[in-house]
Amino acid sequence: MIIAKNIQKTFHNTQVLKGIDLHIKKGEVVAIVGPSGAGKTTLLQILSTLDKPNNALNSELIINNINPVNLKDKKISEFRNQHIGFVFQFHQLLPEFTAIENICIPAYIGNKKNDTTHKRALELLDFLGIKNKANNKPNQLSGGEQQRVAVARALINQPAIVFADEPSGNLDTESANNLHDLFFELRDKFDQTFVIVTHNEKLADMADRKLTMRDGKIETSVI
Ligand code: ADP
Ligand code: ADP
Prior knowledge:
One of its GO terms (molecular function) is hydrolase activity. By secondary structure, the protein is α/β, with parallel strands linked by helices.
């Protein structure tokens, strides 16, 4: 599902990624851990096509059978919208829209049919246990509920890969555990691939694989 070879990234003469090699299979849940500044977010941004490696010529990146590095910006946006979902720590829900509207936005961008999308959004809300909150705006939802809405939004287009950057970082223990269980349920149900940057040790231990990053490199790979 994801093949990365010798991925390097430099910001202002500082090499943040020093040659990353990765192979992630379909349906795998991979946790990326490591100290702050190790390059985790930068790696996630490159794998999720939000950023590009510096060394396009002597590196390789294949996401869901596509090499995104040489795609034009418009094609990359289309590719991302179809194949990739994102969950961020600060979930960036749009405050003026309801939960269900927030969830449907990526589908509308992809010109999907409204009625199918709405039905699927309700199914996702049901699956996440917050169907009764469909018409609430973000400020009428708890942190855990907002995070679930963000997860539903990441899943509305049925992406093959979901990237999450500290998805449970601002959740209480119970909400965090529920969210983690949800990732595994979704993987079991839809065979989706999850790549999750986390400081949560429990989640890292539950994952199929834990990758530890330190100083721009992957240190160990525990199966
Ligand atoms: P982590 O997620 O492991 O904390 P990051 O990938 O966020 O690490 O950052 C790694 C290093 O790269 C940090 O020193 C950070 O300041 C730097 N960095 C990340 N993104 C940028 C950027 N867009 N411009 C300049 N420096 C950046
Ligand atoms: P994390 O919470 O994973 O450590 P950061 O707070 O380091 O993430 O980064 C948040 C965003 O800011 C990312 O998009 C990253 O690329 C960017 N960023 C991080 N460090 C810098 C920096 N020194 N200069 C510019 N952008 C940065």
